[in-house]
Amino acid sequence: MRPPEPWYAALARLQREARPHALASVVGVAGSTPREPGAKMVITADDVHDTLGGGHFEQQVIEAAREALASGRTDTRLEAFPLGGRSGQCCGGYVHVLIEPFAGAEMDIALFGAGHVGRALVQALAPLPWRVWWFDSREHAFPDDARDRDRLHLMQPAAGAEGADVEAAVASVPAGCHALVMTHDHAEDRALVDALLRRGDCASIGMIGSDSKWASFRSRLRDAGHDEAALATVRCPIGVPGAHGKRPCEIALAVAAELLTLKPDTEPDTERDDRRGVAPETLRQVFPSRT
To answer: Are residues 209 and 182 in the same domain?
Structure first.
């Protein structure tokens, strides 16, 4: 049995892994309370690290944090817990808890191919809080240190008599991912694009190659039953327009830049909503300004 993980160690690990979690901090107390201001706890969908004092109050904090995580909300919330009222605890104090949800990875990238460009692209994406689901059907295709990297999920289904099990690979990636196809084999590329289009829930699909490669694929995919609207969603060649260079690192940088253009805009529409997080009026009541 592993020892309990303190909140700061859990927070650092979950941030590195880009896994959804919430940080709950006691920011103000009155009367008799289980913990002092500054006490913190990290909460995930199925685990809790450290404690705010236990009891029904702590369970309410956990439920509030998990509700935010399940809904995908990332707005900071200031929750008030009158321990004798809302929490039903005999100590009868009053606690304000700041709950800060972190949604985890900003984007999921499904990368099919561990060749020169695939490896360079993984290196280029490494500093970003994105999860990469990396597939290659060849034995020993991944670099030796790949399994030790955070936010990198390796998929290597056994190849049968008819080649790699691309259906299983495509089924294993999350919905809403940005799929990039760049394997060592054109037939495998085509099978992957076919499976991704049939799945129908990718945020985007891109394939490395030339205009002539895509023209050939497009004809065969049309014959396989994909209509023009579906085929129009596939980008080939991939990479930000106007980028030049054929070195693997140059192609990888162009693809990474293109992915940034596909990243959802999380900034608010300031014309409609320039207030985020805890309402200023609430903060002024809880933390009076000094004059």
So the answer is: yes
CA 135 to chain centre: 18
Q: Which amino acid is at 76?
A: T
pLDDT digits (tens, 9 = 90+) for 130-149: 999 999 998 889 999 888 78
Query: How far from 37 is each of 52, 96, 98, 150, 268, CA to CA, in Å?
Result: 10, 9, 11, 32, 31
Q: Are 22 and 102 in contact (CB under 8 A)?
A: yes
Number of residues in the chain:
291
Look at residue 55 in the predicted model and tell me its pLDDT.
Answer: 85
**Measured between alpha carbons, how far apart are the two ends of the chain, in Å?**
53
Please report whether residue 163 resides in a domain: yes
Clarify whether residues 63 and 158 are in a common domain. no
Number of domains in the chain: 2
Secondary structure element (H or E) that encloses residue 81, with its range: strand 77-82
For residue 108, give the DSSP letter.
E
Residue 163 DSSP class: B
**Could you tell me if residue 117 is inside a domain?**
yes
Residue at a domain's end among 59, 74, 104 = 104
Residue 24 pairs in a beta bridge with 41, 99
Mean pLDDT of 167-182: 94
